[in-house]
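**Protein of interest**
===
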Amino acid sequence: MKVRILTEPEIRALIGPSEALEQVRHGFSALGRGDVVLPEVMFLDLAQNQGQVHGKGAYIKGEPHFSIKVASGLYRNPERGLPVSFGVVWVFDATTGFLDTVLFDNGYLTELRTGAAGALATDLLAREDVHRIAVIGCGGQARYQLDAHLRVRRPERVLVHCRTPEHASRYATEMSAAHGVPVDIAGSAAEAVRGSDVIVTCTPSRQPVVADKWISDGTSLQIDERVGQQFFAPLFARARESAVTALGAARFAAAFDAGRHSSRSRAIRLALDQPAPSAAGASPGAEMGMLAGERLKWRCWSPRA
């Protein structure tokens, strides 16, 4: 059995943000049609090391391959001189079950896919005339999120906030130069959020970082799944449309119930096969499939306008 091995530089040469966005859209559409085999996520919480590990896999029916991935995020790694993320993907022949390729992406595909999935949710749910995007957090994923978002919306301004001022300054300088959009530093999360049309949180915090009272009606909001359900309930109660995968997850089920939100049954649909909507919104269902077989980590919804 001959197994191909691709390293991170080789993978980066084969796929970037634009290709990822296209493939994520394809995978989510396939899931909406019922054409994806998607097992539950294996999750290891390494709280003592401030980290977590995910094991995920997926198969799009009719494709020649299926994939299984393990990705980790250890947030104390920078203290050790190591990157936060690591990942590896195994690609198998769907006919024989034999291993075909090993992708030593070091977490690149996870970062890329997460950014693309967040941008896709914004493309489907956010209003067309986005004037300002708020980014909470300024690590690696915050960079992928902004890169991907700027491929579906072109705001006049971006506001970023994170706990470490030096990191925020570096992010603002780097992103402004890379994308030609003014990126300014907000003194607080409230300052960043208030008045923004799209809000994206990119932080490992397990506590709410955005308050319901800061968010205007008609805002498109993405929240990392790790924060508690007590944060989601009031927002779900306000939400007009929502895009949520892993509907069996207890915290989101509880949030839906507490918010008495009616769009749960609409969360997975074929909206991705349609053009991007106007401010009226649409609810995509989602899963990427072959690009790492990973669940959509970012949740997005728009409070009623």
